[in-house]
Specification:
Blueprint (H helix, E strand, L loop, with lengths): L1 H21 L6 E9 L2 E12 L2 E8 L4 E5 L2 E5 L2 E6 L4 E9 L6 E10 L2 E10 L5
Antiparallel strand pairs: 1-2, 1-9, 2-3, 3-4, 5-6, 6-7, 7-8, 8-9
Amino acid sequence: MQKLAYIYLILASFSGFASAEESLPPLLGSFEGPLVIGRDNMNLAFTFSEQNGEPQAAIISSGLGIYGLPAEYFSLEGVQLLIRIPQLDAEYTGVLRLNDAGEEIIRIDGEWFQSAEMVPVVLLPIDTPTL
């Protein structure tokens, strides 16, 4: 009987986890953080929007000379996101971090991968990307 109760608790915790993912706040607006590659220190920003029910992402980085380039591929599954930008031979993978109430995205912890180099990049919400 005790074993059955333990299994029930495990299943209940998984179902609670799934419902928490379903109620994530929408990923909309701009997020920005420092991108340090070698000796170059520049800002990297993504603006997230929704168009016809589909999530969209665009990149802005004055250091890279990019101002609103749309991502060719963007997926958001639960708290995991993936952005691919083949024109730059780059991708960004990240994890959404929420506030304690789970109502607001407070940052995105991720990694920028370009030309066989991976760099950690933490993005914070901002009103307007730095140009």
